[in-house]
């Protein structure tokens, strides 16, 4: 049963003389527990599609239905609450809060959800340990390398055990060992907790782990391949 449905969405920018379609007539559905990669060349529409799936961007046409909710029909407050409770984001630019430590950045979403200080501290420490930053919990983003900041961002996205994680190039700044560890953590959460992962990526290491690979070019889906578990 589909938990995410994308119905003929388009995103057009009309600021130029010739309209530019970042996404052009995409129709997709995702079932609970998918581990999917969206691939394609730079400028193909991967990030725009991911942002539309997460309710960060609004399509010019078409519908996005997540967990039976029509995203376009939600008020701004309802959309914020929905994302807070259901979606974890990992951005290329990390989007960490500069004045907070690593552990405080991971805790932030849990604080917004009203979890107790003890509960959120325990969860944040656990995730930072798993991404190999257990000894850097009190460092602020400026004290961490780009790869380390990305790992904090991934830990933050996973902190609330969301239904869905949308990740835009989550391994872009990671070395091979860190990438392997990170993907193993995500696979474990996907397998044991049923979290749906959708990646936008150029990284062949992510693509090899994916059980579904969607290729887009010029804002259109050109292939959609499901990979059997015994072929991973």
From TrEMBL:
Domain ABC transporter, first and last residues per copy: 4-232
Family annotation (InterPro entries): AAA+_ATPase, ABC_transporter-like_ATP-bd, ABC_transporter-like_CS, ABC_transpr_LolD-like, MacB-like_ATP-bd, P-loop_NTPase
GO cellular component: a single term: membrane protein complex
Keyword Cell wall biogenesis/degradation: no
Family that this chain belongs to: Belongs to the ABC transporter superfamily. Macrolide exporter (TC 3.A.1.122) family.
Record-linked PANTHER family: ABC TRANSPORTER ABCH.1, IMPORT ATP-BINDING PROTEIN
Protein's recorded name: ABC transporter ATP-binding protein
Species assigned in the record: Ancylomarina euxinus
């Amino acid at each position: 049963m589909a938990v995410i449905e994308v119905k003929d969405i388009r995103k057009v920018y009309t600021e130029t003389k010739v309209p530019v379609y970042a996404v052009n007539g995409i129709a997709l559905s995702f079932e609970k527990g998918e581990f999917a990669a969206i691939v394609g060349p730079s400028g193909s529409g991967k990030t725009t599609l991911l942002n539309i799936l997460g309710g960060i961007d609004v399509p010019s046409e078409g519908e996005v239905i997540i967990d039976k909710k029509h995203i376009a029909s939600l008020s701004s407050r309802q959309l914020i609450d929905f994302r807070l409770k259901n979606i974890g984001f990992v951005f290329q630019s990390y989007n960490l809060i500069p004045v907070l430590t690593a552990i405080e950045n991971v805790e932030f979403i849990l604080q917004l959800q009203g979890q107790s200080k003890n509960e959120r501290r325990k969860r944040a420490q656990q995730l930072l340990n798993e991404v190999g930053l257990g000894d850097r919990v009190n460092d602020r983003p400026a004290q961490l390398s780009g790869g380390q900041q990305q790992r904090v961002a991934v830990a933050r996205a996973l902190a609330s055990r969301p239904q869905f994680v949308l990740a835009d190039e989550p391994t872009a700044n990671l070395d091979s060992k860190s990438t392997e560890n990170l993907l193993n953590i995500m696979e474990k959460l996907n397998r044991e907790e049923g979290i749906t992962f959708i990646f936008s990526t150029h990284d062949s290491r992510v693509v090899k782990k994916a059980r579904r690979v969607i290729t887009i070019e010029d804002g259109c889906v050109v292939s959609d391949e499901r990979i059997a578990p015994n072929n991973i």
